[in-house]
Specification:
Elements lengths: L6 H12 L3 H12 L7 H12 L8 E2 L2 E2 H6 L4 H13 L1 H11 L1
Antiparallel strand pairs: 1-2
Length: about 100
Amino acid sequence: MNVNVTEEGIARILSREYGYSARAAEQTAHDLTHFVCADHADLDEAVVRWARDRDDQTDVRMGARSVRDLVEQGLSYPGALVFADWYRSDPETAARALAERM
């Protein structure tokens, strides 16, 4: 990650610009800087681009869905990136959770 794109910096963005609580901002920032799926280079790049310019919301694929689909369904862009990581790591559980939410 870029030196300006730190977990603390992302937490500040989430808190100040997205209205996340302090705890939610810290947890989401951690998730955005510590993806667990095996192939996450595109997610890392999307986070860096978004952190530099919030309007730069790179679409990332996850199976038949994409991050853009999730944003259109009401998730925040950072939340959609975290979900994409979860989906890639555990697609069955993530898909069930998404179906329950929608």
